[in-house]
Model the fold of this input.
Amino acid sequence: MIPVNEPLLNGNEKKYLNECIDTGWISSEGPFIKKFEEEFAKKSQKKYAVAVCNGTAALEIAIEALDIKEGDEVIMPAFTIISCASAIIKAGATPVLVDSDIETWNMNVQEIEAKITSKTKAIMVVHIYGLPVDMNPLLAIAKKHNLKIIEDAAEAHGQTYYGKPCGSFGDVSVFSFYPNKLITTGEGGMVLTDNEQVAERLRSLRNLCFTAHKRFVHEELGWNMRMTNLQAAVGVAQLERWDDSIKRKREIGKLYTELLKDVNGISLPVVKTDYADNIYWVFGILSKHKPAHVIMKQLGEKGIGTRPFFYPMHLQPILKKIGLYHNESYPNAEKMYNYGFYLPSGLALTDAQIHEVATILKEVLN
Ligand SMILES: *Cc1c(COP(=O)(O)O)cnc(C)c1O
Done:
């Protein structure tokens, strides 16, 4: 069996974890947290980084820290993970959707302006699968309409837009460190900002809004979303390999592309755009005729792990149930769900495994 993802943990992870155990620093108070935050902020060209327990939590406090609340609208892609919509809805606001570009799989920036109303507060930008969103036109729209940017870079560690890091564009930006992400801490997330007050608020919200002067007296309700020193220890070790991981992801993408480029009936991820080279967080495939679930089932029977593409937000049963998206259609997002899936793409994947996956995929498609 070739799993869809296997992380690579062969650097200083074990050494730093042992340090945590030897020193007894296993809670969120330990020294690796600060180190991980500082180094991650530097890599992302942001002033402040606040480590949290996962990427979904990061989105939740990002929304809260920007004071997005009941009655507000946030524009976001129809094609993404539920965490994005969920964070907006839990704050009492409404996610307003735009369709995807069928080539890059990212939100179609051309469709944003038509969705802006007097209630729009922010745009949630999500870089999908390996290419960044086309930020310059999006930033111009945000500026013109005085909208905040929440940048979800959970799939874009190490990716850049015209040379500037993904995660550096948001008023608040978030990352995830789930094991299928380019940097992992097992579970984990990060929220970044250049605004000192927002950073303070993020720190407070992740830590139950304890007040500095009177412990156990609370002016506000927060969450316990703290990252542990154990997780940060793994994160610090992972950061040491950041450039190698980026390089390896691109090698994996390049090899799959070479092996699959002449196969009929599928389209492959865009190799590059004016603004970025694909970083292949995952190697996605868009089938032209055969539904994704049929191909995935056949691959599974031959020992190849896959995942379907995201299920679009406007089709989510829970979002329909709360009254959203009843007469809306996002044809590209629907097509991507019906015909899209991704191949094993983790950092521990070997070239031999990539050859095997490509051979079996060709068999299945013929
Ligand atoms: C993985 C991911 C998240 C959620 O991160 P978790 O750490 O799994 O909660 C959020 N947004 C995007 C785009 C993701 O890919």
User: Anything to note?
Assistant: The chain has a mean pLDDT of 97. The first strand starts at residue 48 and ends at 52. The two ends are 21 Å apart (CA to CA). Residues 54-56, 80-81, 83, 126, 152, 154-155, 176, 178, 189 surround pyridoxal-5'-phosphate (CB under 6 Å).
